[in-house]
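INFO worker-7 received task bundle
INFO bundle size: 2
INFO processing item 0
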Amino acid sequence: MSLIFPADEASVVSGQGRLHALIIGVGEYDHLGLGVPKPSRLLSGLKPLTVTEPAARRLAAWLENKYTNPNCPLGSIELLLAPAGDYTRKDGSKVAVEKADMANIEAATNRWFRRCDSSKDNIVFFYFVGHGISTVKGSYLLPADFGNPDIADDWRNCIDGSGLRSGMFKCNAQHQYYFFDACRDAPVDALTKRNPHGASLIGGADLSDTVELSADYSAASDGRQAFGRDGGETFFCEALIMCLDGMGASRLAGGRNWRVDAATLSRGLVSVIQAIAARENLPLSCECRMQKPEPLHFPPNGRVMVKVGCKSEDMNNEADITLIQDTGIKMSPPGDPRPWIQPAVAGNVDIRVKFSNFPTEVINELIDPPVYDLEFPL
């Protein structure tokens, strides 16, 4: 078992509203890529991934350390990784994390389902990061042992993400969140297969089974790829944590407190991914359908992605940008990439832009999540 929170199954609270998370990060594949002892007959050209395992670890650590919901506290986090290894909990203790292969994923899903099913007030939290593909029949997620040539069914070790979400309609937990951090492009190798399929992991839901919220957020639009930064995590994971930290939040009545809910998270992810795409000059996309405003997390502050640029190349080359808040000063001298994209705390902000050959520009604004886009001259 790879239960990183709490320390053991006996300590998991059941029968009361809790968030139960299953996080799967796959970067190392047994049968995909060059030099593997037993290459897959299907999709063998897919390469190992370096950004997925760090993404899964970072999100697990965020949940363990930052998730806040007084009405539904953290209940459990189960983590599977490939390559497997140790995870250091916030108290300094270490836990051995199981490999994210199909057998371990199936077993972990069964345990996770039982925890989620223990109360209608629970929150379901599922995150997968690794290889994903689309076919004429749907989108699929690939565990570490996908494509084992010793198995006659090439699709045996494959997960149907939509099927998992549909199967969870029979779960008592009424608020459910699914994050699919994977590509959704359609390799020719997969499109030519007669019967692509994957395991839903959970079956038996009736047409009459319903939940109040089943929200899915995908790191790529249909037919598109997802990306990450070498030496870091995926851009979708970066955007998700930014949104949970406040960029996907809205002010509560009175304007002093903040809440991330399913609807504000959808809006925030789309906007933040667009800002990251501009920063990285990459064709990033995500698919986040508008959802009900069911609360997920209460961050201490709202946060905003501030984007500052100029309408002409000459002005961009000269722009000396200063962002001033009570929390501190951030600066971007001439020669830095433009537009300048920087996180800030929601609230009052002064933005000053000096030029050598153009008038100085000064803006004072009250900024709110998710993105504040400023282009000079106004």
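INFO item 0 finished
INFO processing item 1
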Amino acid sequence: MTVDRERVRSLVRELLEAIGEDPERPGLRQTPERVADAYAEFFAGVGEDAAAPLAHTISISRGPAPETVPSGAVMLRGVDFRSICEHHLLPFRGVAHLAYLPGEQVVGLGALSKVVEVLAARPQVQERLGEQIADTIAASLDARGVLVVLDASHECVTMRGAQQKNATTVTIAARGELADPAARAELIALISLRQGQGPVAQAQGSAVQAQGSVTT
């Protein structure tokens, strides 16, 4: 799906008039065009297949280096992402930590970050974003377990309302074997080690998050 830039431009102009501004004044004359360009980037994932990056897998038993079969989880930490909260159309941004227990197939690590990118480029809430990432990985790979931890700052919290500028939201989504808090404790510890401190460390064992859910 392609963002209708012309319609966005028209609506932004109307919005500026609705808040009492003059869209023809010099500082705002190019604003509708700029917002249309930004929205085309922010919402590029609408209608895009998030599983497509995972279509090319590598056999770990019949591949070029079968002796490197992983004995534990594959983890990609610190994947930067940004999205737009669907409630206020304000940005939220943070880091994603992804892990899965591979079966016969593994996937290029860049493909995992692409899944995050596609799903984040839509109107989102963080709780759903983590669940969608976990579902996409679980459905596309023969993984025995999947873990997705998101840690993000929301402008609807930091810039309006309570204006808690230091607040972050942590959500956990887990599938398969990693739905068991004890099974994922080592992975949570590794994420916390990278973070150094903060709410992720508190999630170890209890799997209690600021918002969100854990689904088997």
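INFO item 1 finished
INFO post-check item 1: The CA atoms of residues 84 and 91 lie 4 Å apart.
INFO post-check item 1: The chain has two domains: 5-40, 53-203.
INFO worker-7 idle
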